[in-house]
Amino acid sequence: MSNATLATQLATDLRALANPEKAAFFPQFFQAFPGGYGEGDCFLGVTVPNIRTVAKNYSNLDRSQLLGCLRSPWHECRMAGLFVLLRQFELAKKQPVERQAIVDFYIEQLDYVNNWDLVDCSAYKILGVHLVSNPQQSRILHELAKSKHLWRERVAVVATLAQIRSGEYTDLLQLAEKFLTHRHDLIHKAVGWMLREMGQRNETILRAFLDQYAFRMPRTMLRYALEKFEPLDRQRYLKLTGGR
Question: What are phi and psi of 227, to 5 degrees?
Fold first, then answer.
């Protein structure tokens, strides 16, 4: 089956589950309008649970077929392709060569992982988990962080969630420092989210980072990082931003 035929079939399956109200709402929610971060994206109007349901029917796709999903103009088709890739990665747990091939393929297709939900459903579950087992490859995160490409930068940050859950914080702390001056709110949110996740496991390290950098942190990043703090502590750190 050709890539084009597969993409059409997958889109047809998804379209059967489409909700017209969602199709009208999603372009606004994901800023697919001119000048938005998702400019030009197209939506069928399918919810994530339904996308997962469809993806289960395509779990045996080969790489060439997956390209038809990941390069689809439809947002939901790309997400379904990522769910298939994730499932294949999970099934290859005891096959390091195959996992490496999946990670390489994922990185090669990052131009199509082009909104925050696509990043968040895949980055830490594929690339992040891989790096926990292969820490010598963590340079990948820093290469992505240097890309000056919003979604690759977010992939780098969100991928650290797997490391955080394994008790490793070095890459996150380096990326968090690098992105203190980043221009985009979606990176501020991602970094703050990861810092919060780290703090739930090691509050001492989070406090040390905040004591050094809170006065420089974008307010959104700082608010996300402080969500689990007591109100008085939260206000103390927020005051360091000088009302920014």
Answer: -55, -30
- Could you give the 3-state DSSP secondary structure of residue 202? coil
Burial code of 194-229, b = ≥16 C-beta within 10 A, e = fewer?
Answer: bbbbbbeeeeeebeebbeebbeebbebbbbbbbeeb
For the segment 88-132, what is each residue's pLDDT rounded down to a tens digit? 999 999 999 999 999 999 999 999 999 999 999 999 999 999 999
Contact 179, 187 (CB under 8 A): yes
| Tokens linked to 94 | 């005891």
Cross-strand pairs, 42: 74
pTM of the model: 0.94
Q: Write the DSSP string, 30-94.
A: TT-STTSTTTT-B-----HHHHHHHHGGGTT--HHHHHHHHT-SBHHHHHHHHHHHHHHHHHTTT
